[in-house]
Design a protein that fits this description.
Blueprint (H helix, E strand, L loop, with lengths): L1 H4 L4 E3 L8 H12 L7 E3 L10 E4 L2 H10 L5 E4 L4 E4 L6 H12 L9 E7 L4 H8 L9 H16 L4 E3 L4 E4 L9 E7 L2 H6 L1
Parallel strand pairs: 1-2, 3-4, 5-6, 6-9, 8-9
Antiparallel strand pairs: 7-8
Helix pairs in contact: 4-5
Length: 196
């Protein structure tokens, strides 16, 4: 959208994990205004004949992009993580919505919440009760394999865990949790979180 709105042509190479959404959006734009048809091109294989680049990927992919696109103007986004700050005053509906943010795009970095900040003495029962409606996610093989593996690693390492049968919560200062796990960190005041 940024490329098109700035009057340029979009040369698009989709992620191997996401072949459909951008093509759907491009077709939708073209159905609204046929002038977009000649402004959007999808490419298979190596990108060539471009003036500037907007790219996103993992930190490893970003290193490759930095090298490959070093001679072109570029915006390269690396890993990002989403966090949630809970106060303990959230409604059930708000916690259900948080569950959606945790599970909808599991494993896709910034698209899902991988860490929560919570006040000391937080009641995890309220959180687990609200997200229980997402329990069927453990029926998805990729998720279940990660759940079993990560839980086993945590238990063998004697980490203290909260577990509801489809999600583990582990106290950890890191931001990027593995699939089927969410890290949590206690805070004394919201101001402390702002400093991080």
């Amino acid at each position: 959208m940024s490329v098109l709105l700035s009057g340029h042509n979009a040369l698009i190479k989709t992620s191997s994990n996401d072949q459909h959404l951008l093509k759907f959006l491009a077709n939708y734009l073209i159905s609204i205004d046929a002038r977009f048809e000649n402004k959007i091109t999808f490419v298979e294989g190596k990108l060539e004949n471009f003036d500037a680049v907007i790219a996103t990927g993992s930190n490893n992919t970003a290193r490759y992009f930095d090298y490959y696109f070093k001679d072109k103007p570029n915006i390269i986004r690396k890993n990002r993580n989403s966090v949630a700050v809970l106060t303990g005053e959230e409604t059930k509906e708000e916690l259900v919505a948080l569950g959606e943010d945790i599970f909808r795009y599991f494993g896709l970095g910034c698209r899902n919440v991988s860490k929560i900040f919570i006040p000391k003495n937080y009641n995890f029962d309220t959180f687990f009760n609200a997200i229980f409606e997402y329990q069927d996610i453990v029926q998805y093989e990729k998720y279940a394999n990660n759940y079993d593996y990560n839980k086993a690693v945590y238990l063998m390492s004697n980490y203290k865990l909260f577990d509801n049968g489809f999600l583990t919560l582990k106290e950890d200062e890191s931001y990027s949790s593995p699939i089927s796990s969410v890290f949590y960190e206690y805070y004394d005041s919201i101001e402390d979180i702002d400093k991080n």
